[in-house]
Specification:
eight-stranded antiparallel sheet; Jelly Rolls; single chain; 1 helix; mainly beta; 226 residues
Length: 226
């Protein structure tokens, strides 16, 4: 998705409290399970969401449950959570209401994952490498409240914290984008093939400010296909 052609491999270890802007052409590596390694992604401001699409690339060999994407507010620490299970399932939490998808088990090969949801009908769908799951229904009429914090690498048990080593992500993530609407199947296919530079209007991986902590490595991902 990002037209970045690196001339050399760059590896950085970011210390707690460091911050920067934009992750164009980059992946975040979480090399080991910890209770303090994370990346906070700053979003465009919103008061509430009645629909969304969240897409990212990920790979992990961890044989346990862990968080893929965590959004916490003062109302709910699981305001929006994408959770990977040891059996391969992916669960979408909406303020503790859960929609579960049975998907191929995560492994060392990077895969593109999208989760879509809309409130009016409660329709939720998972996509893996451009292939759609069956539609599930849940959370009809719910909204995702604003003024929270987005974290990758950890599940939040308080806003911006309460991390647990046993729930931490170990592996690689990149191109985390979020939209405040449901992308069409054609748009998801384009994004999954890295045929578009367009990032999300809520979270844009290329331009978002981020803060990292613990042991996180930022590397060129060598995934350009332009």
């Amino acid at each position: 998705m990002n037209p970045f052609i690196p001339s050399m491999l760059v590896i950085c270890i970011y210390l707690a409290g460091s911050d920067s802007v934009g992750l164009e052409g980059k992946s975040v590596i979480f090399p080991t399970a910890t209770a303090n390694s994370y990346v906070r992604l700053y979003s465009s401001p919103f008061s509430s969401l009645t629909a969304f699409t969240i897409c990212f690339w990920a790979a992990s060999e961890a044989a346990r449950d862990y968080s893929l994407f965590s959004y916490a507010t003062s109302r709910s620490y699981n305001e929006l959570l994408i959770w990977q299970t040891s059996s391969g399932g992916v669960s979408l939490y909406l303020n503790y209401f859960v929609v579960e998808f049975s998907l191929p088990k995560m492994d060392a090969l990077l895969r593109h994952i999208c989760i879509t949801w809309e409130s009016s009908g409660g329709s939720a769908t998972a996509w893996v490498n451009g292939q759609r799951s069956l539609q599930k229904f849940g959370g009809k009429g719910r909204v995702v409240k604003g003024s929270g914090q987005f974290i990758i690498g950890q599940e939040q048990d308080s806003v911006g914290g309460g991390f647990s080593k046993s729930q931490s992500f170990v592996g690689e993530m990149s191109d985390v984008n979020m939209w405040d609407y449901v992308l069409t199947p054609g748009e998801i296919n384009i994004v999954s093939r890295r045929c578009s530079r367009a990032g999300g209007n809520i979270i844009n991986w290329e331009t978002a400010k981020y803060v990292s902590g613990g042991i996180t490595k930022i590397e060129d991902n060598n995934n350009c296909t332009f």
